[in-house]
Amino acid sequence: METFRHTVEVRWADCDANHHVRHSAYADFCTHARIEWLKAQGFGFEQFQAQAFGPVIFSEWTEYFKEVRMSERLTIEVRIAGLGDGCSRFRIHHDVYKEDGKLAAKHEVSGAWLDLKARKLTLPPENLAHIFAELARTEDFEILPAKSTT
Fold this sequence. Notes:
23% of the residues lie in helices and 41% in strands. It is built from three helices and seven strands; from the N terminus they run E-H-H-E-E-E-E-E-H-E.
């Protein structure tokens, strides 16, 4: 299992009035890294659209360690922190590193999969569950308790 890494550059639009990265930009960076990870594994937006399902996020948190400013390049490491049976639910952890290798932030999301036609939770296709199973796990990885997908 390997950790996925994606690099982004901080843009003007990512900064706030204090001249550093605004809090919600971290969520945007990490979402982008997750999408790039799935795309690199052959499961891009087109697959979600064709199968009429997608992720639904239940919770999200960020912890900040170092200030980040415009034009800095950040590397985001993506790992799995928890999975439910059949990948029905997930927790994804992101470490955001500055160019000097210092940890700038930690970001985590938890969610499940939504059938966009039925508007209810569903299981992902087997090939997507396999992609999640192959990503590196955090040291505190846990099996998430089962919840109904009906």
